[in-house]
Design goal:
Layout: E1 12-14, E2 19-21, H1 23-41, E3 49-53, H2 58-70, E4 78-85, H3 94-103, E5 108-112, H4 113-117, H5 121-128, H6 133-151, E6 156-158, H7 163-175, E7 194-195, H8 203-212, H9 229-243, H10 247-261, H11 263-266, H12 284-291
Parallel strand pairs: 3-4, 3-6, 4-5, 6-7
Antiparallel strand pairs: 1-2
This protein binds zinc ion (ZN).
Residues 3, 5-6, 8, 21-22, 24-25 line the site of zinc ion.
């Protein structure tokens, strides 16, 4: 099959748009979509120091490559990376992340759960049950990413979340009866903002972009992933999208719509005094962190 934009062989069929694209036009498409989101949200400003959250997965490698390329002529923008060791046996070896950063000539800051919290995620899963390990992991990751970012003068964290991740996030909270989570309230200014340039790109297109540039990445998946509700929602959504190809975009747009419609309501939600995050009583992240006695550690 030929590319719809030129005569080269197509490597991608976009079911949701009906287009066939060659390697050259996949690259152009991915970069144009990511640039559009950056411009629309004013995500890159003069003087920014942007750190890519480098998990070692294909998306994070692609995001670092893309941001380096995008800012290669910008002397006023610094791009670095942050890699975390959660302490999960056989997963997320920071060696892969460091290797990616080195191959793209990027400074990489590292941190580990064991060094910061005195506990690995394997131990948390053993102690609290594998079912709650994802929640602990998310809270610990956010805390540590923010601490490293602030220590290193990072002005924005760049996350490689894709359209798939966003659609799963929206659907998970609708199915779980917690749509209020989708409302982004006024953020605590002590938290480093997160940018998501790939948020309107399907995962398979980001992975294709990674492949086109022969970027090294990690193939393993988290051993605790099967316990997460996200996994069930992802399976359900992928199956549904086979017959209804625009569903992930519809969910992404629904998330934006809910946020815009409810923005004024969100400002009436009270903030937890310790972290400034919206919460009824103590915020869940603060509860977990205080349990592990890391505040001020
Ligand atoms: Zn083409």
């Amino acid at each position: 099959m030929q590319c719809n934009k030129c005569r080269r062989d197509a490597v991608l069929f976009q079911k949701y748009s009906g287009q066939h694209l060659c390697e050259h036009h996949v690259e152009a498409y991915v970069e144009a979509k990511a640039k559009h989101e950056i411009r629309r949200n004013r995500w890159i400003l003069p003087g920014d120091h942007i750190a890519v959250v480098l998990t070692g997965n294909p998306g994070s490698a692609a995001l670092l490559y893309f941001l380096k390329k995008l800012t290669s002529l910008r002397r006023d923008i610094k791009i670095s990376a942050i890699a975390l060791d959660e302490g999960i046996t056989g997963y997320h070896d920071t060696g892969t992340a460091s290797w990616i950063a080195e191959s793209l000539e990027t400074e990489c800051f590292t941190g580990s759960f064991l060094e910061t919290f005195g506990v690995t995620l394997d131990e948390i899963a053993h102690r609290k049950g594998a079912g709650s390990s994802c929640m602990y992991c998310r809270v610990f990751r956010n805390f540590l990413l923010n601490r490293i970012a602030k220590d290193q003068g990072v002005t924005k964290l760049a996350s490689a979340e894709t359209l798939d991740d966003d659609a799963v996030y929206v659907l998970k909270h609708i199915l779980g009866g917690t749509p209020e989570i989708l409302i982004h309230t006024e953020r605590n200014f002590s938290i480093v903002p997160i940018i998501r340039p790939f948020i309107t790109l399907p995962l398979n297109e980001v992975e294709l972009y990674t492949g086109l540039h022969n970027l090294k990445y990690e193939h393993s998946t988290c051993p605790y992933m099967n316990n997460a509700i996200e996994n069930d929602v992802r399976t359900l959504l992928n199956d549904f999208t086979l017959r209804h190809p625009a569903t992930k975009y519809a969910l992404h747009n629904l998330g934006i719509h809910i946020n815009e419609e409810c923005a004024t309501m969100a400002n009436t939600v009270s903030a937890y005094e310790q972290c400034g995050e919206p919460a009824d009583g103590i915020c869940q992240s603060c509860r977990i962190l205080s349990e592990e006695t890391v505040h001020g550690a």
